[in-house]
Amino acid sequence: MTEPAATPLDMRRVGPIFLMVFVDMLGLTVILPLLHLYAAAYGASALDVALVVAAFPLAQLPGVPLMGALSDRYGRRPLLLISQVTTCISFILLGLAGSLQMIILSRVLDGLFGANISTAQAALADITDESNRTRGLGITGAAFGLGFIFGPLIAIISYELSNSLAVPAFTAAIYSFVSILITLFIFRETHPPERRGKRLRLAIGPLLIMRYLWRPALGMLLLLMFAQQLIFFGYESMLGLFTLSRLGFLGQGNAALFLLIGVILVTVQMRYIGRWSLRFGDARLVTGALGLLALGLLLTATTPAQPHPFYVRELVARDLLEQAPSATETLIGELNVALPANGNNGLGGVVWMFIAVMPISVGAALIRPALNSLITKRVNPSEYGRALGVSSALVSSANALAPLLAGLTFQSLGSTAPFAIGGLLMAALCVLSVIGVTPLSARNRLSR
């Protein structure tokens, strides 16, 4: 039996969305690696740093579903413009910040109104059908991956050349302004008036989330989205500390690790996700992705404690003290991260770690596009914005909780604990998807 052919993507319409998301992600990822330094520059405590990092995802919890509902009623383009203008203003505020309170305000402002990504995903859902939607949504994932490759490099270069935290923030504002121009002059509306709801149905973010969670065909998918992101973002949050304590990695080693992750993400989402979705179906793609994530987390937890060949404990300790002492004290000292002892140097731990990130990267490339594609297939086209807004809000709430939970586990149970526990929980989600998602998708196919 031959596989059905997927409808080709209209790259004249998909291209501007990809470019817009990529530019937005560049702006965001220029800022992310330096947020703790912004906070520490004002004598922030560990709690203050956590608050700065959590301000954005917490503000997204009520903000993104509301913006999604507005985009369902008034179209994607006006809401994208509002979101992008607000993001640009928030970066300018961050560059002008003279206090910790102003830094937090800038992140809250962006979180409340910065629904760029979920609105772009809704636009992609508008112009795709069930045969090519996962590939289309994978386009935003590829833009994410490219952003995480180039954004941190731009952040480091702009900060090192200027020795000022304001310059990366203003650089991010420039990228955000470029995305506004793309929306104004290139992006074409994907949600015409005849497809919009006749009346605006707004609900406070948490109430809308609860309403969608109670839908039998939708709740399981949204819970899987939240749970896998809670585990995966905990992995991302603690990976730098883990490689420091296990392998003696500083910036260069972690940069190489994240570069590999980014390359795999982009490759899978640009070349393979569409054909795999068509061949196996999105439900099996979700199960496979969860299995790969579980495998990668368990491999990470079993990484040998062997520092890299050029590691010298005294030099690493000195470098940590020289790089923003207040930030290092906040992020490292409070967590009591033990540096590896001298001796036993080798490549075993490094090679194991690079192998471990491969299944994690493939799983991460697949999981969110596949889940979001299934979510859009469970709702009417007139509510794509709301549904994907709820999905993004759950991801944001997971991002706010994950660093705290993973950090407490890391500190109280040891450096391998967040990854071992996360791997076991991800394996349980894999089993849950087999029980709860695959049969439902099969029934839906049979009913057509």
How does this structure look, described?
78% of the residues lie in helices and 0% in strands. With 448 residues, it is mostly helical. It is globular.
Features:
448 residues, mainly alpha, Growth Hormone, Chain: A, 18 helices, globular
What is the gyration radius calculated from CA atoms? 21 Å
CATH top level?
Answer: Mainly Alpha
Q: What's the CATH architecture name?
A: Up-down Bundle
How many strands, what sense, and barrel or not for the largest sheet? none
| Proportion of strand residues | under 5%
Tell me the number of structural domains: 1
Please name the fourth-level CATH homologous superfamily: MFS general substrate transporter like domains
**End-to-end C-alpha gap:** 19 Å
Helicity level: over 70%
Helix count, per DSSP?
18
Gross geometry: globular
At the fold tier of CATH, the topology name is Growth Hormone, Chain: A
Q: Report the strand count.
A: 0
- Let me know the average pLDDT: 82
Question: Structural class of the secondary structure composition?
Answer: mainly alpha
Order of helices and strands: HHHHHHHHHHHHHHHHHH
